[in-house]
Specification:
4-stranded antiparallel sheet; 60% helix; single chain; 6 strands
Length: 316
Amino acid sequence: MKQEKSNDSVKTRKFIKEFITMTLAMGLAAIAVHYFMQPSGMVVGSISGLSIVLYRLTGIPVSIMTFSINLILLILAYFLIGKEFGAKTVYTALILSPWLALLEWIDKHFGVDPASLFNFPNGTDYWFYMLGFVLILSATQAILFNINASTGGLDIIAKIVNRYLHIDIGTSVTVAGAIICCSAFFIPGNSLYLILLGFIGTWTNGIVVDHFTAGLNAKKRVCIIAEDHQRLQEYIVHELKRGCTIYRVQGGYSKEEKFELQTILTNEEFAKLMERIKEDNIHAFITAGRVSEVYGLWFRHSKSREWIDYSEPTNI
């Protein structure tokens, strides 16, 4: 009974933490759209970019347009994808519009003009807007991917295309983003320079989000050769709660037979392992290399024993 209450408590704390993380992360995404992409007039491949195009053509606020498009995509995803589509994506897709509406209200209430928020000595610096938008949005996407969520919008289109046309999901995102960038041609008077900048921003966004995601998900492949390998095996399995593989190896010079432990650890767990080796004065030969991707089953949190299946990589 106590164990069940403890598990429920862990799940509740996890839900609250992820709920707050998703809400704040989408607030960052709204800032990127409202204060960087929208004032610049460029269209980076995303649902927000398409909303800006439609706003310039119809005058309907970006927040309302974003909400409407995401709502349609979520309904399509429910019927076309079904259970495969996660509730987290539903929440993040719908929370963006309230954030944008809040920023619009703040601007109106305090007399803030997003177009003149940044004063440039030689006119508008479009590269500044593009890089600012890409960095903020990429960081947001990386944070959400780290908790198995996404920003919605373009993700939904990519998943539908991937499911029914059997096109790689990464390619689907790139193609969908490029098509949205092309919609900027319909904005009267929009310059070719801004349209090309939108394409560059779309491409850069993919590169930067991969970099951020790799950093958040980076793990270490640790190889240890030690005479007292059993103590390390016990520590890894029972304390760190990670699996390990044991190999019988032979020294090329000494010809002595020894055992090698191999395991995959997070950076924090690797630091704990090294500290234990130092404290117990265990003589060992250790190599550690960075692992940016893990496929198969992996404990996201070793203490809570929460399984996550990395059989299929998470994409935008």
